[in-house]
Give the backbone structure.
Amino acid sequence: MEKKWWHGKTAYQIYPKSFLDTNGDGIGDLRGVINKLDYLKDLGIDIIWLSPIYCSPFADQGYDISDYYNIDPAFGTMDDMDELLAEAKKRDMHILMDLVVNHCSDEHEWFKKACEDPDGKYGKYFYIKDWKEGEPLPCNWRSYFGGPVWEKLPGHDDKVYLHVFHKKQPDLNWENVEVRQDVYKMMNWWLDKGLSGFRIDAIINIKKKLPFKNYPVDRNDGLSSIDNMLADAEGLFDFLDEMATETFRKHDAFSVGEVFNEKPEDLPLFIGDNGVFSSMFDFAETVINKSPKGAYDQKPVTAEQYKEAVFNSQKKVHGVGIISNVIENHDEPRGVSHYIPEGELTLAGKKMLGGLNFLLQGLPFIYQGQELGMENFCYNSIDEVDDISAKDEYKVALEAGLSPKDALHVIDHFSRDNARSPFQWSDKENAGFTSGKPWLRVNPNYTEINYEAQKDAADSVFNFYKKLTALRSSMEYNETLTYGETVPYLRETNNLLAYYRKGEKELLVLANFQTGARDIPVPEGFTKVILNNIEDIKLSGNTLHMEGYQLIVLGKE
Ligand code: GLC
Ligand code: CA
């Protein structure tokens, strides 16, 4: 594998709106990110991915962009952005932006012009079709946020446009070379400015199976999941290879794709030596038990399922490329609330989960607040929910016959607001996130879970994450943790997730993924304790006594 500048690094996702507000308007801003660069450096972060900060009407929290060349005033100015790039560089840190180009906002000038003249240049930037009231729509795909993917084109009663996400997110027509050239121009403009690369949003959706046609109906709304169309679409890599050549490859930029459901043969095309991206996220754990019926039908994840997902992914990518490992992001529940069974969550469990994920082969991404062990929280009513996806899931759950109380329970668990609630800096008002009114509710547990309380506490989740980043970047283990093969250990043992990392050195990671204590045999030679999430270590001969949710990393003397 060719060595790259970003190999062996640690990355961090910032959701700017909820990170730190510096002007009291209740919305996190770029100045807040600049102010916290030293915090991130101290945590051991090298690469920072910013969720979208471009101009946006925020129908989908910035994933609906109305101007790719400007910063939304809620976040600050282009000067702030330039300052952020410069300050990051001083600290030897890299900034990534979110590239959202499957769609733009319906308030982008391209779409406005398309509405003015659907037959003109900009009409061809989108998928616009003739349609008359009473006729079937051009196809029966279901939008990711519910309802059909077609919406009436504003100002035209006889036309509809395609949106696979929200109706305020019209899909760009990637078949049109002018669209592609405009996108590459914009990407290069940012890369020339000093950006180190992009996280690439929802990218598999850019290739549609054309001409539009229906797929089998899979819910009683008479529609069909987009997944059915995507499985049928071909030619994605022609677009992505062109994008890579025109942008990333010229700049030696880092790119990480948001890719779901890839076919096995596609993996090297995505992240192999000549792949279109530097890396892609491993979502194998996040999709466990996902149900085509909706979130209400998703069962809790078991330790055994988690283990199998991890091992399958690790095997699949070894020797192919570098995967990016996450336990949560701005679309997922808080990892500690999702993967540890309800009622069993402890400090040890939080650290165990972090350690298990962090020590895998690949590039670890920490999502803001994960390093504090931030958790999901409870809603009193659906009116408190901001997330458009959660609102739809609530509706779907009610339609499936759940009581409002049970439907709300589903949302408690799966709402994207869980990860988007403000960062908990301290036990001061609003968790120290803002002096104003936070745009989204602060988790009431901020009085206990916050950075101030953790920074000097030796046994805090925060300090455990610092140990993890230090271990990864250490001269001694960086090579092994970056490139070493992950080899399962005692895979058949229930609720034990254990693996070797075999590179220049050998490490053994052992996690007791359950509340009950137990004895585990340890192979010859692994006598050096490198990391431990519970003070006690009881290794006698070849037997290791492990407490519930204990994680231990052993090496050789
Ligand atoms: C991605 C983003 C998500 C967004 C969607 C549409 O999945 O992570 O937040 O809603 O794309 O842009
Ligand atoms: Ca602000």
In short: The chain has four domains: 11-102+177-382+416-461, 109-162, 383-414, 483-556. Residues 296 and 397 are 6 Å apart (CA to CA).
